[in-house]
Every structure is written in structure tokens, then in C-alpha cells.
Amino acid sequence: MLLVAAFVYEIEAGEREAANTRAISAVDNWIRLGLGHRRTAAGRLFDPVEVINFMKWAGYQGLDDFWINHFVATTRAFFSEWSSTPGTGGLRQHQPARFAVDLRRSFDLSGIEAGQKLRLRLPLPISQLSDQIDVEPVAPSGVPARISRSEGRLDFQFAASSQPETEIGARISFTTSGRSNDDLAMIPASGREIYLRDSEGLIRITPRIKTLSEQLSGADGDQFAVATRLFHHVIDQLMCGLVHYDQVNTEAPGDWVLDSGWYDCQLGSALFASLCRASGLPARILSGHMMYRLAPGFHYWAEVHIDGLGWVPFDFLTWDLSKAGQDEAWRHSFVGTVDYRLVTQCFPLTFTGPMSVRFPPSWHLVNAPFGKGMEIRFTELGGKLIYRDRITCQLVS
Length: 397
Known about the structure:
Layout: H1 2-6, H2 8-12, H3 16-33, E1 38-40, E2 43-45, H4 48-60, H5 66-80, E3 97-108, E4 117-123, E5 131-138, E6 146-150, E7 153-159, E8 165-176, H6 189-194, E9 199-200, E10 203-204, H7 207-217, H8 223-237, E11 239-240, H9 253-260, E12 262-263, H10 265-278, E13 283-290, E14 298-306, E15 310-314, H11 318-321, E16 341-346, E17 363-370, E18 373-380, E19 385-395
Parallel strand pairs: 11-12
Antiparallel strand pairs: 1-2, 3-8, 3-19, 4-7, 5-8, 6-7, 9-10, 13-14, 13-16, 14-15, 17-18, 18-19
Helix pairs in contact: 7-10, 8-10
């Protein structure tokens, strides 16, 4: 995880051994500062959530330079692949660009009997943020499969084989500017209500959220200014890292974030959307993959509908880019603008949906470099694979 978050450019330059040594040295220093771990005959065991959050906490407190010198520096390098000027924000929109993506998803089916009917699913670009979408499915090897395509998803239906693992995939090409094409002005009046609901998934307007929103919004009639103020409050008051979702209070997730002091991209977007809706601003959550050449990671961000402007994006990658809001030049990097994304979900109307393989209550997410892209692996706490994605992306034109 540290390599893909902080050293992918060094790895590309053939300096993986040096990067690995630097990452191990950083972990050793965090242990001296208090990072918990367990020693076994196999080596030292860590909680990935604790490692990433400790790295950011130590950097924020000025106890260690890894977060600033490597993690933040690499995040800014990703940003600079598409934007030459940091922090300008201001509703910028990139020119449309075409990308080629190779996405392979592997599942552990060792607990499923041979012959059992399965429906496995792969996310696809959604049309409101992508044009000219071409998809070439890659079926499971040696298994007859029925493949069907619908908005935002590619379904593979087949009977499980005796093999413990199976892979589905797709070669995808699409064009995007990074901004949503739909607009509330083109939706019936009832459509606006969808994005103002008090309760939707992790978006929950509790009395505490309502009060906080009213305090921050004031009587300002400038909708973009209000949304920006709500966004920066989350940036300035809370820490952006990783979260154990089995610990989150799903009845009041925003309250849980305010109490714990930590959010990830999904919970931060949900808290921000809750604050916006409480102020009367329609808001929603999107997800997909960032089109960063060496690290096309999975990500969540938010959009707020501003009268006269349409759907305006806000992305909590700004937290790291701006060193937790401390670097003024980067505070507006993803305020009103985002870079290129393969967008696969736009809640509440477009989402990938469930598949035959289910998540346990507790799980780990571990990212790692993979070739010219990255691997995103979900595992049970004991290490058993749930599924993993291996994804590469390339700018075509």
C-alpha cells in the first residue's frame, strides 16, 4: 500500500528496491512512535487501516516526514498529470479525452460447489459522464458464460467450475471530460427531491448534522460559496484516512465521523452531502476509478447541484493535496473541478449492485502496484480473498 501510494514513479524508474527499503524504514519509525503490530513466526502483522492513519497522523503532527515528502508529493504528481496549476478550482473543465482501460476481476469461489449458478459483475462507465463507450468482455477461461450489458455493469452468468478462483474482465474505451452531463433543469421537479432526502445510504441528516449545517451556512445566498464553506469545514476539522466499516454507526454515520475524527473518501463525501442537503443544496455521491496512469485507484467523491452551473464536483483528495488544508495554494484543487475519471456509480440511481460473492461484516482493503497499473484486493480478516481488481489505464487521445 505504501509503494502504490508513495513510490509508483520510483518503481517505474526501476528503483523498487530503494522504495521498498524506504517504506520499511518508515514503518520501523512509526513503530517507535507507537504504531501497533503483532509479531509471529511469519513476521510482523499490521492492520492496513492503522498503518495509513498512523502515517498521516505522524506527518500532521510533524513527527515524521513520510506523509509530506512521499505520500503528498506523489498525490500531487498524480494531480499534475492533468493540471499544471495547483489549487485554482473555479469550475474548470478538462477537454474531452479518450481512455483505454483493462479491468480484470478475480473471485475466490473455493466455498461454492461446482455447478452452482453464479452471477458475477464488472462495473462499466456510466453514460452521463462518458461518451462513445466500447466494451470487449473477457469471459472466464474454459467456462461457457452468458454475458449481458446494462448501464454501469457487465454481468457474467455461468455455472461454477471446480477451480478455486475465476476471473472475468473487460477491455473498455470511453471518452470523458470528468464532469457530469445531466442537469436538474432537465429532470422533473420530483427529481430534485431525490437529492434532498434526509436518509439515503450513508447520507443521513441527523439533528446534529442539521444544526452544524445551519451554523456554517448562515444566510449566504451564494450556493457555491456555501458548499465550499461546508467542504472546507470537513477538510479543516477532521482527518482523511481509512475506516473500519464494521465500527461505523450506520444509523448516524456522519455523527460517527464527527466523533471519531476520521473519514475516508466515501464517508467524507456522505458527510459533506448530508451537510449540503441540510442546507437545501441537492447533493449526491459518485464512485469509480481515477485515470492516473500508474495508480488508477477506486474512489468516491461528491457533486452538488448549483443553480445555473449544474452538478459541481467536490473531492476529498484535496485533504492530502493541501496537507490537511494547511497549504493554501492547494485548498481549492478539487473544489468545483475533478480530473478524468472512469465513473461507474452515481447514487442513488446508478450503481453496480450485488453479485454472487458476498462481503463478510469485517474485511481488509489492500492496494499494491501491478505492472503499469494497480491491484485492489479485498480480503477477509484471515487473508482469504473475496475478490481483487487488476486495472490499467492509458490515454488514447
